[in-house]
Amino acid sequence: MSWIVLIVSGVFESVWAIALDHIEGLGRPLPIVLFVVGLVASMAGLAFAMRDISAGTAYSIWVAIGASITVCYGMLTGAESFSWVKVLLLMGLIGCVIGLKLVS
Asked: Other CB atoms closer than 10 Å to residue 76's CB: what's the count?
């Protein structure tokens, strides 16, 4: 169960990071709400997962999931330039996350 919660909380990390990019000076309420909900869900899920998964492993997997999704979102929306090098590096990051899971 902790691994599922960790993965979901990694997704919520990308939600709050993407929402933070859309807040634009606190003038838009929906991104603010998404930021707060994503941040709370992300941190709560990470804290829950860390009861059964070591802090280093849980945190690195949480960051990798959130960062990968955030970069992919940016490339898909055009906010960030696409390159095959980025795709390969993200695949390497995801491969390292899978490796951490396998050795934990």
From this structure: 10
